[in-house]
UniProtKB/TrEMBL annotation:
One of its GO terms (biological process) is phosphorelay signal transduction system. It comes from the Bacteria. PROSITE patterns: RESPONSE_REGULATORY. This is Response regulator. Keywords: Phosphoprotein. SUPFAM superfamilies: CheY-like. The keyword Phosphoprotein applies. SMART domains: REC. The keyword Hydrolase does not apply. Residues 30-145 form the Response regulatory domain. Gene3D superfamilies: 3.40.50.2300. The modification 4-aspartylphosphate is found at D80.
């Protein structure tokens, strides 16, 4: 867990999915992690891999993310808002959606109403505020898959 417990409705949803055996099956989603904090990116990679997702790469900035997405064709990107080298997660998500039809799940400590409004144009899968629990993240991805 990275921070606080999962929201009660997500915990209930996860219990239902586990009871139905839906979290025990291998996941087929290919995930690109776009996060400039290396330790957090590696933690996300471990959590997703342990849950059966295929992590196709880690990117710290928009340019890395676009190159990796072009080469690896992920199904979804986990996207921070503030990225390395002055790049922006909202713009990165917009480009991924427009050029490759890759949706993003925003995982960030910067999810104020203005940022959410800008990100809405990308048709995101959702928003997970930092700090977050692994269950929050997995529940959002399960609903996306």
């Amino acid at each position: 867990m990275v921070g606080r417990p999962a929201a009660p409705e997500l915990e209930v949803g996860l219990r239902v999915l586990r009871c139905l055996g839906m979290l025990d099956r291998p996941m087929s989603l290919r995930v690109l992690i776009v996060e400039d904090e290396l330790i957090l990116a590696m933690d996300l990679e471990d959590v997703l891999t342990d849950a059966g997702y295929e992590v196709v790469g880690l990117a710290a900035d928009m340019h890395q993310a676009l190159r990796l997405a072009e080469a690896k064709r992920p199904d979804v990107a986990i996207m921070d808002v503030n990225l390395a080298r002055g790049t922006n997660g909202v713009e990165t998500a917009r480009r991924l959606r427009e050029h490759l039809d890759v949706p993003s799940l925003f995982v960030s400590g910067n999810l104020d109403p203005k940022t959410r409004a800008r990100a809405a144009d990308c048709r995101p899968l959702g928003f997970v505020p930092k700090p977050f629990s692994h269950n929050d993240l997995l529940a959002h991805l399960e609903l996306a898959g």
